[in-house]
Design brief:
The structure holds two protein chains of two kinds.
Chain A: H1 4-30, H2 39-77
Chain B: H1 3-13, E1 15-19, H2 23-35, E2 40-44, H3 47-57, E3 61-65, H4 74-84, E4 89-94, H5 97-106, E5 111-114, H6 119-136
Parallel strand pairs in B: 1-2, 1-3, 3-4, 4-5
The chains are: A mainly alpha, B alpha/beta.
């Protein structure tokens, strides 16, 4: 059964993945002195960075879907425009 | 041997295990460790597989999630690790540091990484583990 707790957990997981993928992207680019790399090495760094950026994009889309799933739980209890509990 | 070379060879020889039920987090974490120079990385998603692998490999460091893919959780894996591989440094990973921080410390965890991860926290834990390994070798 889908519960609001499960949905919060799911959202937390997307959040964790986004933050870790951002750290990996930064590590891939930031740890290298780019001016000293060969073309082959630069290509490798760029490929890795693009790969993790693609992942971040997908995780954000998935997090957004989870938020959409959560809306009925929340809006059932709180009026979305006034914040007043129903 | 130059310090940089020594550091590199220590990192390469260090056995690191990631125990985490979320495959994407496991893979990203492994990418991060590889970029920091680790070569012997083991990835496991269940408590049962984790205990078997710890017994077999006696890793230097474990990054351990609390919620795992089977009915054995990270706290049980931590307890078991203290018995079967007492020299292994176990770093717990969870969003619930307030709930589990004290308990895992009492059970012998070496550290705690709060999710979502912050680059500085990861780096600090990693450097601390490495320094101890350097001192112990």
């Amino acid at each position: 059964m889908t519960t609001v707790r499960n949905k919060f957990h799911e959202l937390g997981n997307w959040h964790n993945k986004i933050s870790l993928a951002a750290i990996v992207t930064r590590e891939a680019i930031g740890e290298n002195n780019l001016t000293q790399l060969s073309e082959f090495q630069l290509r490798k760094v760029a490929t890795k960075a693009i790969d993790t950026l693609n992942k971040i994009e997908q995780y954000v889309v998935n997090a957004d879907k989870t938020i959409d799933d959560m809306k009925p739980f929340i809006y059932q209890k709180i009026a979305p425009d006034t914040n007043i509990p129903k | 041997m130059a310090i940089a070379q020594l550091k590199e060879s220590l990192m390469e020889s260090m056995k690191v295990m990631i125990i985490e039920d979320e495959i994407d987090i496991c893979d990203l974490f492994a990418d991060y460790l590889e970029m920091r120079g680790c070569e012997k990385i083991f990835k496991v998603s269940t408590g049962k597989d984790a205990i078997a692998k710890i017994e077999q490999e006696k890793p230097d460091v474990i990054f351990l999630d609390i919620q795992l893919a089977d009915n054995i959780n990270g706290l049980e894996v931590l307890r078991k690790t203290r018995e079967i591989s007492p020299d292994t440094k176990v770093i717990m990973m969870s969003a619930y540091k307030e709930e589990y921080g004290q308990q895992t410390q009492e059970l012998g965890a070496y550290g705690f990484l709060k999710k979502p991860f912050r680059a500085d926290d990861l780096s600090k834990v990693f450097d601390r583990v490495f320094k101890e390994k350097e001192g112990g070798s």
